[in-house]
Amino acid sequence: MSITQTVDIPDTRRITIDVPSEVPTGRVVLTFTPLPTNAGAMEASRTRELELINRNAERLNSEALDVLSFQSLDL
């Protein structure tokens, strides 16, 4: 399992992490990777893509179920 979240590091260099319950307890590896200078544009693009996906999720799921209904499971 891998979870990625972009956060802003404050001047104090202190952040608090709330771990989702889906993550099993035990040892983990935290990796801090600075974003490239054009990261703001990349993040905005990703946000727009997610908004489009979420806005069309019901229609996309309906289309996928429709396609699957035409497939035969007899091999």
Describe, in plain words, how this protein is organized in 3D.
This protein is mostly helical. The chain has a domain at 39-70. It is 41% helix and 0% strand. The chain has one helix and no strands. The chain has one helix at residues 39-69.
List keywords for this structure.
mainly alpha; 75 residues
Q: What's the layout of helices and strands?
A:
Blueprint: H1 39-69
**Portion in beta strands:** under 5%
Distance between the termini: 33 Å
Report the C-alpha radius of gyration, rounded.
19 Å
Largest sheet: none
- Which spans of ≥5 residues are poorly predicted at pLDDT below 50? none
Give the strand tally: 0
Backbone shape: flat
What is the mean pLDDT?
A: 82
Summary, kept brief:
The protein has one helix at 39-69.
